[in-house]
Amino acid sequence: MKNLVTGGAGFLGTHLVTELLARGEPVRVLERPGAVVDHLPLDKIELVFSDIRDSATVQRATTGCNSVYHLAADPNLWRRDRQEFDAVNHLGTINVMEAAVQSGAQRILHTSTESILSSADFKGGSVEHLLKEEDMIGPYCLSKLRAEQAVHRMIEKGIPIVIVTPTLPVGPGDRNQTPPTRMAVAFCRGELPAYLDCRFNLVDARDVAQGMVRAMERGRPGIRYLLGGANHRLHEWLQILGRAAGRKAPRWKVPFGLALTVGWLSELWADYVTGRMPMATLTGVRLARRCMYFDPAPSLAELGLKPRSIQESARDAVTWYREQGWIPPGSPPGASATEQ
User: Fold this and answer.
1) Alpha carbon 50 to chain centroid distance?
2) Within 13 Å and on the Cβ side, how many CA atoms surround 89?
3) Taking a C-beta distance cutoff of 8 angstroms, is the pair 206, 171 a contact?
4) Higher confidence at residue 77 or residue 335?
5) Coil, strand or helix: which one is 251?
6) Which of 37, 77, 166, 325 makes the best surface tag, with the fewest CB within 10 Å?
7) Tens-place pLDDT, residues 50-91
8) Alpha-carbon distance 185 to 171, whole Å?
9) Which of 302, 322, 250 is nearest to 126 (CA)?
């Protein structure tokens, strides 16, 4: 019986496929039509192209799969058509879950996001709070919250769905450049002269993949498994990344009001002129004000998972960025790892 991985060509999905194949398990990947998939081991997997908004093709993709890992989503914080977020992230999730049930899947895993949580009262313990719809920042977060709400309603009916919530994934392999990678690459290229102060939890994408497999094996339905690593402020992360890239972290901190204005103007320009991803998004700026410090220790202990150090993730990410030709092959002139 196969494992189905929706979004298997994405950042987390690619690492999950690698992890499953390393365990000798058969894998079927569902990806949207037109997705780049040539980095996957196509001779070792079964590949199905389907839009998760199309319930009929999703139903066919789940047939014969004992385990369904649902990762497919739009991870960006801006779209010209804001309704796409709900159609893909919310309604698409319902399609996958219902198809998995109808196909007789024994285990189902849903991938949530830390952006629908808050740790404003963080004191060192596991105090993540699931927020309400009125607390959501932007259409991406709202669509992911509604997806999780739908999953919980299914769990209450006895459907065996396990929920994993990765924090901010970093490391090598993000070919589509999700927002954290876009920022990291811009910094390594010397295109980030200032930073917006924010607090988040970082975890290596490869460790998230391992956590997903373990959650599928031993996780309890209805329990949130927080797949996280280390808490850092953005400036601290840039220092770690800078030591790997030979780049000094910026010293100028952008005031929140200025960042909000830049985000508003950037989205306005993208909406009505370019149609391309803006330099800054309102959702990203507003999320920066929310404390995203978490303690994943209880989840990691139950799953028997020990994430690697963020320093290792930074080194591997920088090496991979250079292999892709995204950043210069060596340390920029005048920068050194000791100048942080």
Assistant:
1) 20
2) 25
3) yes
4) 77
5) coil
6) 325
7) 999 999 999 999 999 999 999 999 988 889 999 999 999 999
8) 11
9) 302
pLDDT of residue 331 exceeding 60: no
Identity of residue 147? A
Instruction: Lowest mean pLDDT of 151-160, 272-281, 304-313, name the range.
Output: 272-281
What is the end-to-end Cα distance of the chain in Å, rounded?
51
Cα dihedral value 309, 315, 321, 327, nearest 10: 130
Please give the DSSP secondary-structure letter assigned to residue 91. Answer: I
User: Does the structure show a pLDDT above 50 at 336?
Assistant: no
Q: Which of 245, 183, 172 is nearest to 208 (CA)?
A: 172
Tokens 């649902």 locate to 70
H/E stretch holding 256 reads helix 256-269
Q: Across residues 9-33, what is the average pLDDT?
A: 97
Assess contact for 279 and 262: CB atoms under 8 A. Answer: yes
